[in-house]
Automatic annotation (TrEMBL):
InterPro entries: MFS, MFS_dom, MFS_trans_sf. GO terms for molecular function: transmembrane transporter activity. The chain crosses the membrane at residues 12-37, 71-97, 109-132, 138-155, 183-201. Residues 1-202 form the Major facilitator superfamily (MFS) profile domain. Keywords: Membrane, Transmembrane, Transmembrane helix. Pfam families: MFS_1. It comes from the Bacteria. This is Major facilitator superfamily (MFS) profile domain-containing protein.
Length: 202
């Protein structure tokens, strides 16, 4: 819904490209998000922040008109929420399962992620056939995000326990020269971030 709304309200392809680029480029922050979550043990708190970021992006988009900065803020909120979820959700799965069940747990996670895409897309298709406006569709998406937020508060994921030795190792690795980081690592982080962007474009 994002790209058609930007074109409909502003008529600017350049703005649409800028917003989508901002969302994609936010994937570079994935290592930092993971480090902060491990360093301070705030995985569950950051998950809530991610969900509220998604809700904020929908609220901003609901009220946005032609102001460029509003759409850039929407892109920023989507980037924060999407990348944080992509980093944190697998962490919760791996933390809560024994090693011999982790692969199956991750496969279930990705199945549910795409199931969510199918459900949301199907709902949008149905309400489009019913003649709902863009604003009504955004309200429906806000309701779905609110359901997710309430669910996380009622039944939060188990706390992620990070051994002290691993925290120290993370601290040391962050202080190393950035030249030692390979481009492959960043590509691996950016690849999953492209999926939400592609879904937004469609």
């Amino acid at each position: 819904m994002l790209t058609p709304l930007i074109i409909e309200r502003t008529g600017s392809g350049a703005l649409m490209g800028s917003v989508m680029s901002l969302i994609g480029l936010f994937g570079i922050s994935a290592p930092l998000i993971g480090w902060l979550a491990d360093k301070y043990g705030i995985h569950r708190q950051m998950q809530k922040v991610a969900l509220f970021s998604h809700l904020l992006s929908l609220v901003l988009l609901y009220f946005a008109q032609t102001e460029t900065y509003t759409y850039l803020l929407v892109g920023l909120a989507i980037g924060i929420g999407t990348v944080s979820q992509l980093v944190l959700n697998p962490t919760f799965v791996l933390n809560s399962l024994p090693e011999n069940e982790q692969a199956r747990g991750l496969s279930r996670l990705f199945q549910f992620q795409f199931l969510g895409v199918v459900i949301a897309g199907s709902l949008l298709g149905v309400v489009s056939l019913l003649g709902w406006t863009s604003e009504q569709k955004l309200l429906m998406l806000m309701a779905l995000v609110c359901v997710s937020i309430v669910t996380v508060f009622i039944a939060p994921p188990p706390k992620v326990e990070v051994p002290e030795a691993e925290q120290q190792s993370d601290d040391e690795s962050l202080t190393k020269n950035s030249n030692k980081r390979t481009a492959i690592a960043f590509v691996m982080f950016l690849q999953p971030c492209s999926f939400p962007c592609l879904l937004l474009v469609t």
